[in-house]
Amino acid sequence: MNKFLSYQRLFSEELFESVVPFWLNHSIDSDYGGYFSCLERDGTVFDTDKFAWMQGREMWMFSTLCEQYGLKDEWMDAARHGVSFMRKFGSSQNGDTFFALERSGKPLVHPYNIYSDCFLCMGYAAYSRISGDTWAKEEALRLYKKINERKDSPKGIWEKKVQGSRAFCAMSFPMIQMTIARELSGYLADEIVEPIVQSTLDTFWNLHVDKELKCVFERVLPDGRKNFEVMEGRLLNPGHALETLWLIMDAANSRGYTEMVNDCAEAMLWSIDSGWDKEYGGIFYYQDYMGYPTEKLESSMKLWWVHAEAILAMLLAYKLTKSEAHWEWFVKLCDYSFKHFSDKKNGGEWFGYLDRQGNPTSTLKGGKWKGFFHLPRALMLGEQWLSELSDEADKKNNV
To answer: Is this model's pTM higher than 0.85 or not?
Structure first.
């Protein structure tokens, strides 16, 4: 057995025998529609409110499983469950997406967060591809238009900062904007998608990546300068850097940008080297570039999504560059993550939040911020990439 096949089987088993069944069995609200996301260790629902971006992510994930592995009735039904609920209850009077709804669909929190629209847009687009539902395609495009109308002032009247005050450019929106554009690539003309992708690549490398300092900065001033006088300007999020890097690497590779692929691989090593907890293992959630305390009380914690995205980053970098350093990090991350986060013997899925020492801080496996997205996406893509690597190795050995 080659070294890739055992990991491919590990990822496949974790995805199809642990993670997917957990959400199928516990997140579907059979009475009111949509999904529960606040789930205990055994799947018990501990809060019935529904958060729009969790609904959109789950719609996207079940639809994408169908797209990648073939139509299955239970996956299709699960995807449709979210689509029907959000179609009926998700939009405010002006067409923006509510942030949160009561179980029955009654609006709970205003549409202050543009990411609700973003993930719902992705969910409708993925569902339309597997179902052929014209309405879902049109709704994805409508939401895409709304996102572009709001992007310069995403919180609108709910913005807390004083207008004209110090402004930072965050790395998150350009990344999600590129992801949405690529998700809609079959529905939007190339002349619309490609400028968005190119703009995101330019923004990332010209503003957020500092090759001299060997660091990916989460927030920078609009001209790319750093502001190290305040905590916000020094804040690092290694997991988000790694997630962005693999998304950038994937876009670069699909366009034949070999040098950019290699630059991504190098930046991944900066991020993991500085973000790794050398005493207890795992990746810190937040860090301060200059080593000061951060404003985030959870900085020393280890989060499921950070490790899922880091695993994907290192695997894709190895797949495209064959760098043994990235393979070694992939193995190290898998060893840590499957040991500390995975809980398939007690209901399935991963714990979301660990303390610095690697112990769960709570028994939740789903919540307001943890849903059916980062982990199953990582397992799905990882399983596929490992399968390709395994096939390559077998062909090479048989030559």
So the answer is: yes
